[in-house]
Amino acid sequence: KNQVEQSPQSLIILEGKNCTLQCNYTVSPFSNLRWYKQDTGRGPVSLTIMTFSENTKSNGRYTATLDADTKQSSLHITASQLSDSASYICVVSASGGSYIPTFGRGTSLIVHP
Amino acid sequence: ETGVTQTPRHLVMGMTNKKSLKCEQHLGHNAMYWYKQSAKKPLELMFVYSLEERVENNSVPSRFSPECPNSSHLFLHLHTLQPEDSALYLCASSQGGSPRRDTQYFGPGTRLTVL
Lengths: 113, 115
Known about the structure:
Chain A has strands at about 5, 10-15, 20-25, 30-40, 45-50, 55-60, 60-65, 70-75, 85-95, 100-105, 105-110. By secondary structure, chain A is mainly β. In chain B, strands 2, 4, 5, 6, 9, 10 and 11 form a 7-stranded mixed sheet that branches. Chain B has a 4-stranded antiparallel sheet with strand order 1-3-8-7, with no helix packed on it.
């Protein structure tokens, strides 16, 4: 069964600090992996997408990495800001079988001043 | 904003009521989606419409009935819902009709409470 597990479930950090969110998946055969940011009261917004051949992708202060061998991804946030407070969702798609992506439960990040 | 709007933003209904959720996309996309987001659970894809035809119905109970009159509008008709249907209902659109390949743009959602 395709699964996506995210850790930690929640995280509190101080403004200006860095943090790393983890995503482990069992989706196979692998097609792509996305990270979404969901602000409270809003829909998710795509941050990055990576395919099998990519092992890192940046979007401003957000850097995603992918290790397709260990089936792990991480999202690193540099110099956090208050506006980074949100839920971060990892989504993995398979290249065969069901074309419905597998969503993680998300990591809730709170950045304190 | 993402170019996808949803109304109403909040809805409270009884189990015997009939209501509809509306979604409109202003991006010129060809595909639209309904998702359910419950607390502590992953997003669940409910329906996919590509070029106004339903291409996916992810084992959703018949008390949820989608309608896509054109590529810019999507409705979710609700009737005889259960309290466990209380959730955030998100609409999304994409250029193509593949949820695994195409970037989806989400609306802000409708927070539904069933009493």
